[in-house]
């Protein structure tokens, strides 16, 4: 047809682009994606999780602590990861005390920041304890909730920043870092709730200056019956912190007889000064020294007793195996010191019997078995003393002598081992105190590098109710107190495994058990 042009277009495939087809009678294999990129993604994800978690656990506790109004003051609340869960109460500069209140791996740290004193004492100039607790309890629950929220938000920010610095960061990675960090923080804080036991505040451990120890422990150890609710338990302790800022009184110890137990001074003059300072700071009723006041048996050591002269309270003494006969006589002749050997002394209604160690180890070596036999041979004389006087407490130096004496006295206190240990057998509670002289000049004969130890024995109606295990570390005199409440379960225990077996410590001939 005129005027009409027909165009035919043909599609031509280049020869090089056509792949030959080979038929072998078998199905073609399915294509496989390379595994390396998939593994890389998992590695990156694992590293991201670890980096975020580590950053949150290290930085969020430091940045996430926050101050909250609680009653008439302000309290800082924070959450810190730890191997063993506990609650810490801090009162600068008096120190801090902690208790193993829960099983979760978190420390709940509460520290008093400020206090409105006029609001606390009221118009009549006195602290209304009931109103104080009500005021604190009304605010504590909200403060804890706000602290958890603040901790979670800070952890989310830390998690986001940690994810953002990674070289393979993406927007999704940063978001997941924030969400994961926040969740980790909330879970950590919430782990303090399951199993929270307010009764564990009876096992307080205090750390701080010596002079402040009494005030701090007295204030936060007060209990008024069982406190089953978490908030009530914290309320009670926070009220104690507030009260501790105002008064030096130890109202909670009214009715208690407090005896300072020291031992193993080993010629250390700092130990003698420490004992005097503790006796004054904690307002004790008496001091009981369970021996090894000296070390080598030399006659010149007797002058060390001058450091113990004229104590502010009665000083009761039983000799240890490092105290030679001349040194025993010098110590017992010192003004203010009462020899407790083979007699009983009454301290505000608490009767204490004592017996000098029957072995003196300051001259020639004596085999271990012979030392044990000497201790055991003296036990009948001690048993007669206990049967005749029926004391509340027996004070001896070496626990080996107690093998045949447990069950004859409610409480036995000893030294010798340079460590603090508590046990019971046959109804007798056995307490071993650490070295008050930190082994002193006797470190040439025994182990050294130990802190100075002592203990406050607290009695009510003649019965031991608590032991404050004191430990002074360093030249600054930092004090640590571990409170041990003596329960019926402890009294009925059978775990005083450190009695009845002589330690490889002393040397020397046997002394006359009747040596006074």
From TrEMBL:
User: Per the record, which residues fall in region Disordered?
Assistant: 497-516
Lineage runs: Bacteria, Bacillati, Actinomycetota, Acidimicrobiia, Acidimicrobiales
Any stretches that span the bilayer, and where are they? 42-60, 143-168, 174-196
- Which key words are in the record? Hydrolase, Membrane, Metal-binding, Transmembrane, Transmembrane helix
Which InterPro entries does this entry report, sorted A to Z?
Calcineurin-like_PHP, Metallo-depent_PP-like, Metallophosphoesterase_sf
Query: What is the protein named?
Result: Calcineurin-like phosphoesterase domain-containing protein
Q: Name one GO cellular component term.
A: membrane
Pfam families, alphabetized: Metallophos (PF00149)
Q: Which domain of life is it from?
A: Bacteria
**Boundaries of every Calcineurin-like phosphoesterase domain copy:** 259-419
- List the molecular function annotations (GO) for this entry: metal ion binding; UDP-2,3-diacylglucosamine hydrolase activity
An example Gene Ontology biological process = lipid A biosynthetic process
